């Protein structure tokens, strides 16, 4: 096992992918708790579909993929927020509208242009596709996400648990909901290379749900979620390397296994307390 890990770290592209993956895992874990508690966890899935549409357009026009995807996904996040605030369109419906439209646009561009090879790495993730420029950009964006989350932690906490009360006390809930949407959009962007647009939302949902089975306080849930997310990513990379399986899929499977373990432990604890 130790020899395999040492062999892994002898490759520069794996070290690069591990650094980016850890940062992405932390960002997804931090935001995942808030999004799950606000019953808005599927925003990650919706924005990842938007990301596919943006990447398809960029590949068809021979543009830099991430430079195109970042503004498109950020605008889509703001649009989702505005649509969900409309009483006639709830959050789930808004996500369905934008994600299905973006996916359809992406499919049309791919079919018309004939570009599909480069997009496979974005759909399913590929550590080989992560260039030094991508790693630097993703690292900067990830640090920005973590820094902003820490700076506005108390405000995000208030908006997450009781938005109506927070609004009544004078807190600008719309502003901080926008901050959450922006951070989520950036997290989707930086995770697309490693996890793929179809799997990145799993990093947002699984660690948060697993932590909530055991921890009860918001702060402890966030810490536990962050630790679990990083550990699952590392184990998933090791499994991917040793078994020659896709990295993104391996990480998601490890997260699913951990969730099942935590779920079983929470059931056992409940039965023990009732006795």
Profile the largest sheet.
none
Number of strands: 0
Radius of gyration over alpha carbons?
19 Å
- The shape, in one word, is globular
CATH superfamily: ABC transporter involved in vitamin B12 uptake, BtuC
Task: Write down the overall mean pLDDT.
Answer: 81
Content of β-strand: under 5%
Summary, kept brief:
The chain has 275 residues and is mostly helical. It has helices spanning 2-8, 12-37, 43-60, 65-85, 91-113, 117-124, 132-151, 153-161, 163-168, 173-195, 200-214, 218-243, 247-274. It has one domain: Orthogonal Bundle (ABC transporter involved in vitamin B12 uptake, BtuC).
Per-chain topology:
Elements: H1 2-8, H2 12-37, H3 43-60, H4 65-85, H5 91-113, H6 117-124, H7 132-151, H8 153-161, H9 163-168, H10 173-195, H11 200-214, H12 218-243, H13 247-274
């Amino acid at each position: 096992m130790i020899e395999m890990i040492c062999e892994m770290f002898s490759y520069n592209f794996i070290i690069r992918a591990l650094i980016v993956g850890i940062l992405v895992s932390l960002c997804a874990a931090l935001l995942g708790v808030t999004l799950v508690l606000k019953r808005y966890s599927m925003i990650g899935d919706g924005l990842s579909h938007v990301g596919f549409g943006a990447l398809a357009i960029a590949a068809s026009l021979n543009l830099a993929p991430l430079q195109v995807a970042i503004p498109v996904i950020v605008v889509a996040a703001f649009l989702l927020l505005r649509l969900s605030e409309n009483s006639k369109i709830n959050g789930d419906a808004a996500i369905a509208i934008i994600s299905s439209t973006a996916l359809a646009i992406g499919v049309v561009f791919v079919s018309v242009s004939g570009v599909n090879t480069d997009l496979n790495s974005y759909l399913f993730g590929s550590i080989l596709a992560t260039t030094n420029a991508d790693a630097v950009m993703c690292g900067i964006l990830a640090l920005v996400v973590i820094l902003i989350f820490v700076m506005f932690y108390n405000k995000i906490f208030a908006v997450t648990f009781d938005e109506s009360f927070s609004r009544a006390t004078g807190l600008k809930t719309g502003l901080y909901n926008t901050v959450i949407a922006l951070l989520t959009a950036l997290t989707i962007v930086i995770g697309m290379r490693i996890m793929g647009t179809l799997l990145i939302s799993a990093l947002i949902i699984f660690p948060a749900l697993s932590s909530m089975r055991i921890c009860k306080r918001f702060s402890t849930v966030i810490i536990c979620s962050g630790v679990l997310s990083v550990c699952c990513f590392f184990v998933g990379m090791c499994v991917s390397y040793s078994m020659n399986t896709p990295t993104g899929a391996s990480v998601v499977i490890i997260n699913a296994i951990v969730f099942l373990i935590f779920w079983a432990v929470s059931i056992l604890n409940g039965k023990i307390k009732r006795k």
